[in-house]
Amino acid sequence: MDTTDSQISFDSKGFCDHCNRFYKLHELTWNRALGGHRIGELEKIADQIRKKRGTNKYDCFLGLSGGCDSSYLLHYVVTELGLRPLVFHVDTGWNSKEAVENIYNLITKLGLDLQVKVIDWEEMRELQLAFFKSGLSNIDVPQDHAFMATLYDFAEDNNIKYILNGGNISTEAVSVPLEWMYYQSDVSLLRDVGRKYMKYPLNKFPTSSALNHRLNLRFRKGIKVLKALDYIPYIKSDAELVLKKIYGWNSFPNKHHESIFTRFYEGYWLPKRYNFDTRKITLSSMILTGQISRNAALEKVSRAALSEEESELEISYIAKKLGISYEELKKMLSIPFKTYKDFRNQNLIYRSGAWASYIFQQDVSGAKR
To answer: Is the pTM of this model over 0.90?
Structure first.
């Protein structure tokens, strides 16, 4: 991490706030997981999940993107924990061929059911164009929000009380700076951008507020989220080897590149327009968790995520799919910068929620985090 995160700070020893946050909040949990000391905790939680299954066909819910985290999570909970997840995928129109193959191979080999929610393309396209026009850095909000809102809605509709989440300390110990990516779940901001820049109002697009998924679903509906990868020695390179051997899994050069739009957004748009390189987040996390050396990580980020030729192909494809010209998309690089503060937002709720979570929140095992 460097000063492209404008809020980065360093202590008297030269340690940045990202490192210190890891040492304070995550290091003990990571080391216990790495040593296999949390597997017993996870197995007890899995027992609880199975006991609550009753006569239901499924005992938990898992969103599958085709990327490494969700793919390995699915493999582990089925083959090692004996859980019966209802697997869900949200199709926003940007699936790569490799991701589709990964999903099919996993589902087929594991003998699981797959539910797919296809987002209305016209609304998706209009909302994505609206975010381009907004001047905000996080133009991938429409995809991320659709994933989250649909996931929670589906779990509630099917009366499933456990959502298995692929989030993990292993590759995500370092938080994304707020100026790089503001909360994708902020429905107030999403709707305000839509009102200002869309040709027509949202009708079919799935939405969920922070109050709904943080309070209503969690406390009133009793839906719990389990980050199972934080209980096991989740080393990404080892996980990829397992997935390739068993399922013929397709790997990706960078995290989140299973989505064509996210590959363009993180590999071209953010670095070109803002000088933000999200690889620094993943690689910094992997340095802290001992999976890569700092020198090797620096060598990786010294090269662009996408070559010039790849970038040109991506721009052409994205523009064509969104129904605009190559030139129109390139011109959007010069739109004046804006932040979440220029739109209606729920940042106060998030800040209050983060404080409350730090003080009071418990995970599904009942242990204070």
So the answer is: yes
